[in-house]
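Entry 12.
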Amino acid sequence: MNSDSEFSDEDHGDSHHSHMSCGNFDSDSEDTCTGIVLAENPNRSADADDFVYKVLSVDQIVQHQRNIIDEVNNVLNLSPQVTRIILNHFKWDKERLFENYFDSSPQDFFQRAHVVNPFERKSELDVESKVSTSSSNSLQKLCGICFCPCEELKGLGCGHSFCAACWKQYLANKTCSEGLANTIKCPAANCDILVDYVSFLKLADDPEVVERYQQLITNTFVECNMLMRWCPAPNCTHAVKAVCAEPRAVHCKCGHQFCFACGENWHEPASCSSLKKWLKKCLEDSETSNWIAQNTKECPKCNVTIEKDGGCNHMVCKNPSCRYDFCWVCLGSWEPHGSSWYSCNRFDEEEAKQARLAQQKYRSSMARYLHYYNRYMNHMQSMQMENKLNASVQAKMEDMQEEMSWIEVQFLRDAVNVLCQCRTTLMYSYVFAFYLMNNNQKIIFEDNQKDMEMATEKISECLEREITVKNLYEVKQKVLDLSHYCQKRRHVLLCHVREGYEKDWWDFIEDSAT
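Predicted 3D structure (tokens):
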């Protein structure tokens, strides 16, 4: 996708603070924006602020589709309907389409794209992909689906014809029930010719089905395009078009900020891959980890987790490759328990040593996970509560209008925004730290993390407990100082992480279960 003509060099972001999102822009503006990089590639500068993107409405997305179709048609001289199908086949990658077109025969090219070759039998085929109609006043023909006689049958360029009622039902089922649009094939058996856009509009003959079809082809266009992504915010219909597919922060016109690469909320300093593993681990482990720690033990031989479901202390590992017999109480081998010389009530350090070490390793791993998980969730919950703080601060700002101007009280709203930014960064800092191996740089990171947490808690306490209409003038400077210090600590932490990516300081734990 050629983006040179569609993106300007104007930078709406703060060039001095690469950790901040792109600056505010008018929701009606079509200007481009710049975002920040999550430097997973050590070869990329951590302070790069050259990521350019554009927020598009649905109408702009549709127009963008038409522009690409026109660009291809200027080279290949095909109908828009055929061009749309082959573009979708190549996931709207013009360069790959051209490469395949000129490197293969027309017959092979159009066959792979499931389109009737428009250059073959031009006099007989409908090269404009319009619905072909076969009718006879003297002889009725049978529909290929319902086998009822019909005076007028309709079909595609492949030559298979069906009655209007069957076409309507078939297309409605494919679109509304199966969620298909660009991959709807001719109903005839063993025919893989695709239904083109114009033919669908004429054959469907139902406004609701057509509307659903148009939604699906727009969704497909965005989802298959590596340089576009829908805004994940609820009820938002905008998409973001970027110049490269990298993990960068983008800011939608609806106000939602997210990662362009993975679509999750912006998660610096955690990488997309780490966050994906973390969310999967939390889904699988968090609800059961505490119960497992209290109600299960590991087989001393293979370390498989075992739950005791009866009163008998003679346990048999259910692992088919193990089947070890052991005592639930002492975790020792069950074999000597029946001997008169053996007593389970006496602790044997040597015999239980290996079993204890294996169990301690597992419990330690679980304790480590819970350490990071609890702090991750704590900041998430605090952030959710502090979002409510925004409404409280807004009410206080309105009450202060009698004594101060609206501009004079904006520092309160700015402070809440800084607080929420810090909470988000701290939340994801524990994902980053969980997968980080211990080294000197991790110690520095954790010191920065600690300083940032202390600053965040101070401004949170100040905003929640110390702000009143009467003492506003007294606490204003304190709030401003705390906001500035929080921003500074956040900037220090993120810059250290980015520098670590750039200079290859970080070593990550590959095993997500560790």
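Annotation: The longest helix spans residues 349-399. DSSP finds 13 helices and 15 strands in the chain.
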